[in-house]
């Protein structure tokens, strides 16, 4: 496995973990909303990077849009 591929492999699994952890926070209740948003934002940022490395337009578009939505949610949550 090339070094870049190995790094991307770890990043995609870390991203997946962050997104799952965010959804767990969402299921735990509204008092964990900030954690949900932050973990989801980290996960989608990492997946955006993976999409860019793989040149996968679907991953890039999906996660870029999610980044914007979650960033708006984060700004609303901390305001």
Verbal overview:
Helix 1 (3-28) runs antiparallel to helix 2 and helix 2 packs antiparallel against helix 3. The protein starts with a helix and ends with a helix. By secondary structure, it is mostly helical. The protein contains three helices and no strands.
Strand content range: under 5%
Shape: globular
Proportion of helical residues? over 70%
Report Rg.
Answer: 13 Å
Low-confidence stretches: none
Report the major sheet: none
Strand segment tally: 0
In angstroms, what separates the terminal alpha carbons? 45 Å
Give the H and E element order.
Answer: HHH
Query: What number is the mean pLDDT?
Result: 96
Instruction: Count up the helices.
Output: 3
- Which structural class is indicated by helix and strand composition? mainly alpha
Key terms for this structure?
mainly alpha, 3 helices, 79 residues, 0% strand, single chain, globular
Topology:
Elements: H1 3-28, H2 33-54, H3 57-78
Helix pairs in contact: 1-2, 2-3
Offer a concise description of the structure:
This protein has helices spanning 3-28, 33-54, 57-78.
